[in-house]
Specification:
Blueprint: H1 9-20, H2 41-53, H3 55-63, H4 66-73
Amino acid sequence: MGNAELLKGKEYIDFILDFLQGRKDEQPHTVKKFCYYELTAEAADKLKEILVKDADMIYYFNVKDGFKTLVSSLELNTHALTLL
């Protein structure tokens, strides 16, 4: 997550969703769910900034199961509430 602040737009959306959904993990997850990791306040703020700037990003985010992932992330913390 160290270089995440350098990413913008679709690249950041792809990165954060892949991270939250556990797609970058070496070991496959045995329990199927949309969110395996905690959404940080900083990541939520940056994601909100990207989604507010461009309405097309909202559609892209939704196609990538972004909203399902955010709802699932509520098990871990409430940082996604402002986005939902």
